[in-house]
Amino acid sequence: MRLIKTALDECVVIEPKVHGDARGFFYESFNAQRFAEAGLHLQFVQTNVSRSEQGVLRGLHYQWPNPQGKLVSVLEGEVYDVAVDIRIGSPTYGKWAAAILSAENKRHFWIPEGFAHGFAVLSGPATFVYQCTTHYDGAADAAIRWNDAALAIDWPLAQPSLSDKDQKAPLLADVAPERLPVRA
């Protein structure tokens, strides 16, 4: 397994060691001991799978309180995956990092608690897997507008297909401070 740094120190891309031949391939998508040896002490309580069509953009989502850390990967297709630091007091507040995740590259993206997350589907359908450190909490569910000019995320889609929730999400500057995580 290889860790690839991003523009945000806490968010890393994880490239598994893939064993393959003409018959197919095998890789560990998560191994608590190996991740801990790499400095990632993770414990997951929920795994989610979503499928989206090409041109769909989901996000930027987060939970506060009860923040979720997410180890995300793609089993089918390709996505442009984004993490945004929304922790009040963080030196990288409002900054973002992105990674291309695909069934082909088999990479994972670790997005710690306190970060918003979103992705845009680049291929035909994409099947996306989230391993979460905390259970989903509907009362804590929140979102930030995907095209907030202050964030200046370089999305690869000009006219994405969005949910009603994502279209109406507030700008980061308009989110009440008590609805944002604080850097520990």
CATH superfamily: Jelly Rolls
The general outline is globular
The percent of residues in helical segments reads under 10%
**Into how many domains do the coordinates divide?**
1
Overall radius of gyration? 16 Å
Q: Which structural category do the helix and sheet elements fall into?
A: mainly beta
Secondary-structure topology with pairs:
Blueprint: E1 2-5, E2 12-15, E3 19-21, E4 24-26, H1 32-37, E5 46-52, E6 57-63, E7 70-76, E8 78-85, E9 96-102, E10 108-111, E11 115-121, E12 126-132, E13 141-143, H2 164-167
Antiparallel strand pairs: 1-2, 2-10, 3-4, 5-12, 6-11, 6-13, 7-10, 7-12, 8-9, 8-11
Give structural notes.
- By secondary structure, the chain is mainly beta.
- The protein has one domain: Jelly Rolls, CATH 2.60.120.10.
- About 5% of the residues lie in helices and about 40% in strands.
- Strands 1-2-10-7-12-5 form a six-stranded antiparallel beta sheet, with no helix packed on it. The chain has a five-stranded antiparallel beta sheet with strand order 9-8-11-6-13, with no helix packed on it.
- The two termini are about 30 Å apart.
What distinguishing features does this structure have?
single chain; 184 residues; mainly beta; Jelly Rolls; 5-stranded antiparallel beta sheet; 2 helices; 13 strands
What's the gist of this structure?
This protein has helices spanning 32-37, 164-167, and strands spanning 2-5, 12-15, 19-21, 24-26, 46-52, 57-63, 70-76, 78-85, 96-102, 108-111, 115-121, 126-132, 141-143. It is mainly beta and 184 residues long.
